[in-house]
TrEMBL record:
It comes from the Eukaryota. One of its GO terms (biological process) is protein transport. Belongs to the arrestin family. The lineage of its organism: Eukaryota, Metazoa, Ecdysozoa, Nematoda, Chromadorea. Residues 184-317 form the Arrestin C-terminal-like domain. This is Arrestin-like N-terminal domain-containing protein. GO terms for cellular component: cytoplasm. Residues 16-149 form the Arrestin-like N-terminal domain.
Length: 322
């Protein structure tokens, strides 16, 4: 082949992990295309295509479910850039050539993701060089994948408001004088804001209130575990029945709070502050629920009486208001 090297490279910011660098929706991707030909080559076309796709699929019983959607397709014709180095017959002299390019990611791009057995969201830039050889036209392709995080601003007043969740716990209370009775408490977990950013620390508050009978100072329960959880919902269509859809959810605790150094007792009347760091590199909460893949988050505190308190939160990607 006359073309010895044809390579597309995405330029990542310096001093960062280039392999795992994540672009925010709305950002600009910059890169270079390198061409090295050993002999004079007739050029037909040089093109650049930025593509993104969502795939979901699994098998349940005897049915197969699968859905595909193209969510990004940006085409750029770079033949004019290359023609500056060609003669009037579009022949490119032997040598090395470098072409810079830039592509802006749409603001509505969704987050890259991969879950084995359920689905993925992938993005890539594909450079294609069409040339004329002795046997006819042929094309050379170079592709580079990149990662995207969706854009979700937390500047809305709704996301700045506190969020809380309350559950009532009923326990048996033994009294030698008056017999057994029921003791009720309200346990509340509170976040200073509904919207949180990956990597930041949230100052959670755990509140216990007596709601029945006089508080017993020695009465206490334990909370076992505090976690931030991620739920990813996948939607796919049945292959043999186009109007039949199925949904699968994967829920996992992505970070647990290390409570070994604090008092885990919840007294009858108490208020406890907990500093919980949000994990980094989380896909933001999905802005709409009709995508094939959707993300949501919540805090979960497990109480020793097999009771969970759930506090839904929103993970964003941007905030200007502190």
């Amino acid at each position: 082949m006359k073309i010895e090297n044809f390579e597309l490279k995405i330029e990542k910011p310096q001093n960062l992990d280039n392999e795992n660098y994540v672009y925010l929706a709305g950002e600009e991707i910059k890169g270079k295309i390198n061409i090295y030909n050993r002999e004079k080559t007739r050029i037909v076309r040089l093109s650049l295509r930025t593509v993104g796709s969502v795939y979901t699929g699994w098998q349940y019983a005897n049915a197969e479910y699968e859905s595909k959607e193209n969510i990004l397709d940006i085409y750029n014709d770079l033949t004019g850039n290359l023609s500056n180095y060609c003669d009037e017959t579009m022949e490119l002299n032997c040598g090395e050539y470098n072409f810079e390019f830039s592509v802006k990611i749409p603001m509505n791009a969704i987050s890259s993701y991969y879950e084995e057995g359920y689905g993925n969201v992938k993005y890539s830039i594909v450079a294609t060089l069409d040339i004329v050889e002795d046997c006819g036209e042929s094309e050379i392709v170079s592709e580079s994948e990149f990662l995207v995080r969706s854009f979700l601003s937390l500047d809305s007043p709704h996301f700045l408001n506190p969020a809380y969740s309350t559950e009532e716990i009923v326990t048996d209370r033994v009294c030698l004088c008056f017999g057994n009775s029921k003791e009720k408490r309200k346990i509340t977990i509170k976040s200073p804001s509904l919207g949180l950013l990956p990597g930041e620390t949230s100052n959670l508050i755990l509140i216990a209130e007596q709601t029945a009978r006089k508080p017993n100072k020695n009465s206490q329960i334990k909370w076992v575990k505090l976690s931030i959880c991620q739920q990813v919902d996948f939607v796919a269509c049945r292959k043999d029945t186009p109007n039949t859809w199925d949904k699968r959810s994967v829920t996992r605790a992505i970070q647990n709070y290390n409570n070994s150094n604090i008092n885990c007792q919840i007294l009858s009347e108490s208020e406890q502050q907990i500093q919980f760091q949000i994990p980094k590199n989380l896909p933001p909460t999905s802005a709409k629920e009709n995508d094939l893949i959707n993300f949501s988050y919540f805090f979960r505190i497990e109480i020793e009486q097999n009771l969970d308190i759930i506090l839904p939160i929103v993970i964003g990607s941007f905030r200007t208001i502190l």
